[in-house]
Amino acid sequence: LFGKSILETQIDIFKKYNIDKICVITGYQKEKINQALKKRIVGIEIMTKIYDEDNVFAKILKAKIPYEKVLENKYALAFNDINPQAPIHILVIPKNPYTDLYNFTQNANLDEIKCFWELVNNVISKKVIEDNGFRIITNSGKDGNQDVPHFHVHILGGKNLGRMIN
Ligand code: 5GP
Prior knowledge:
166 residues, two-stranded parallel sheet
């Protein structure tokens, strides 16, 4: 199913074949479309990027793998990075599935966005790094060398972090 206009004009076909669950996916993702059709997904969702349900942070959110929790609130979770690059290296992630900062800012509601940044600030307070300073990094996509495709920010601190990019 490619695009809204096709969806709108084909609604009778969906009724005819008793398709009550529709997934609209932008871009050509044959496997994902086949999966969506097999599962007969409920509702309509327009995605700019496909969220990988099996990524490591999705597993953390489902408590399928262990992690060291720092803090959480209704919409966000903070935990220690498994491979710290500084004395303090904490990841903050939204609980809902967003691929990166752009995707999060475009699609999350204001409550989620507020909760996310509140948690970032609460981590900064908890670790008492507001005075000495810290660095927040978010990597996105190929050029940003993002490894885990679930939006996250790195909070780094506890020492002088040097120049921004080596
Ligand atoms: P990215 O390159 O996507 O911005 O950063 C991903 C971060 O996730 C890396 O700093 C990496 O060490 C961290 N990471 C990867 N796998 C795990 C894991 O299983 N648990 C935790 N706590 N951190 C992880």
